[in-house]
Amino acid sequence: MAKVCLCLTGKTILKDLELVDRYRPYIDVAELRVDYLDPDERFHIRRFPALAGIPTILTVRRKIDGGNFVEGEGARIVLLAAGLAFADTDRRRNFAYVDLEEDLDVPSLEEAARTFGTKIIRSYHNFNGVDENLEQKLRSLRRAGDEIAKIAVMPHNHQEVARLYKAAESTKDIEKILIAMGPYGISTRILAERLGSHLSFTTPLAETEADSDLPVAGPGQLDPKTLVDTYRFRSLTRDTNVFGIIGYPLTATSSPQIHNKGYSRLKMDAVYIPFPVQDLPSFFSLADTLNIQGLSVTIPHKETVISYVTQRSPEIDRIGSCNTLVRTTQGWAGYNTDARGFSDSLLNFIGKQNLWYKRVTIIGAGGVAKAVAYEIHRLKGRALILNRTPLRAKEIAEPLNFAWAGLDARGMELIDHYRDIIIQTTSVGMEPHTDEDPIELYKFRGKEVVMDLIYKPEETKLLQRAAKAGCKTLNGYDMLLRQAKLQFSLFTGQEYPL
Ligand code: NAP
Predict the structure, then answer these.
(1) Cα–Cα distance, 391 to 344 (Å, whole number)
(2) Which residues line ligand 1 (CB under 6 A)?
């Protein structure tokens, strides 16, 4: 089973030992990155495995391979030799692994490793892209059959990530570690078992001030707790069904927590992974390679993704926005669960079955605003749509017989005629821009029901102002949960477990 390895980039042995203790229940292996240790600390590396009490990798990574070691090659070899010296009869007190780069040609180090029961990881790093023939590279990397081949590459798109999965399929006979670094590679850190990777590297979360200057050894590494708890790394198999969310930049999503918790409670062999996607065609090639079964879709793809859909639910045609894709034998089926998630959340909040006689202001005219406007119309409410780009507001409003205007002084005046309920649907005020408010010129009377679809932060500046004026306020988390539960049922055919 693939192991979880914690990369230790502390300046002192003591700091690294503290990190091992902090994550001990979540990790199987530690990697001592000697290249990050202060020079004085290097005298003690030989004792590290015994002190840490966990199988440890000895690594002294050069700057050109993404590490921190700038001294000469001679000094590096001396450090590696010092780490491997003095055989201990109790092999647990020796380094379990040593990382030797493909171009490091020192037979005495290999001999020492073999004598002391230390497994050699033969590594190759490419920070500029993904090599064309990964299978051949994996086969030629090892100098002996008992070595682990490690390849870490930096993809520029998802099609390049797909090459790692294809190479893994044809090299099942080789002991290896395959990693796609950077934001596109997150799936390779979670799906290590599927790749046949011996282990997945992780990094500590900056939990204390003393952690804040800890460098991340490999771009894109997750922390061990997230990998094990959220993504259920230890229960994933080669055949795990993959689901996920696509969007960009996808920094503030809570969907992986919601969906993975559902799979866990139902004991399903499934995982939900965030895929930061800029280029849709390249992503769908990876989706086919991984046989991804279902996808949540978020900013900025909810409209463009419709061209990939072969069967669409009626709301997609009416709303023109799709946030859910389900793989079928005929291609992708598209749905919109934002609409129902929104209206269920609002109606539950105001304790009503419909919006008869309600006059509603919708701030924004993006993808989710379309779903909101559609639902307000379906529930017999009347609405005003205000948007920074007024023409987009007009496009949504006119077919529904709603009013529209810009986010300007006139728009603020018009709110007075539509202020039973105010729905904020833009991204203004979302983390990290928490001091922004799209209707800062509007003065709340205290009678409005105000819903902001943003859920990070929990209370936007707009909601704070509204609550202070006495309004009833609701953020977007309940809507997120409701739409995610609908997605969960579409993905799995099962109710989201309570
Ligand atoms: P979108 O299609 O990209 O639309 C963005 C909207 O925000 C547009 O109306 C845009 O106006 C407006 N906007 C962006 N920057 C602005 C600025 N500086 N000043 C004024 N207006 C600005 O995005 P979306 O999919 O509709 O999502 C919008 C928000 O809803 C996001 O914050 C998202 O997190 C949230 N959301 C929440 C849920 C949930 O379940 N709670 C579900 C979906 C979305 P222009 O037309 O002028 O560009």
Answers:
(1) 29
(2) 299-300, 302, 338, 341, 364-369, 387-389, 392, 407, 425-428, 430, 438, 453-455, 476, 479-480, 483
| Residue of 15, 302, 370, 485 marked catalytic | 302
Single-letter residue type at 30: A
pTM of the model: 0.92
Considering only CA atoms, which residue is closest to atom 17 of ligand 1? 428
Beta-carbon contacts of 362 under 8 Å, excluding residues fewer than 6 positions away, are 369, 372, 373, 376, 383, 384, 385, 386, 423, 425
pLDDT digits (tens, 9 = 90+) for 61-109: 999 999 999 999 999 999 999 999 876 677 778 999 999 999 999 999 9
**Which domains are assigned to the chain?**
3-238 (3.20.20.70), 247-338+481-492 (3.40.50.10860), 352-480 (3.40.50.720)
What is d(CA 325, CA 302) in angstroms, rounded to the nearest whole number?
10
Active-site annotation holds for 302 = yes
User: Distance (Å, rounded) from C-alpha 335 to C-alpha 338?
Assistant: 9
- Distance CA(451)–CA(440), nearest Å, equals 15
Distance between Cα 392 and ligand 1 center (Å): 12
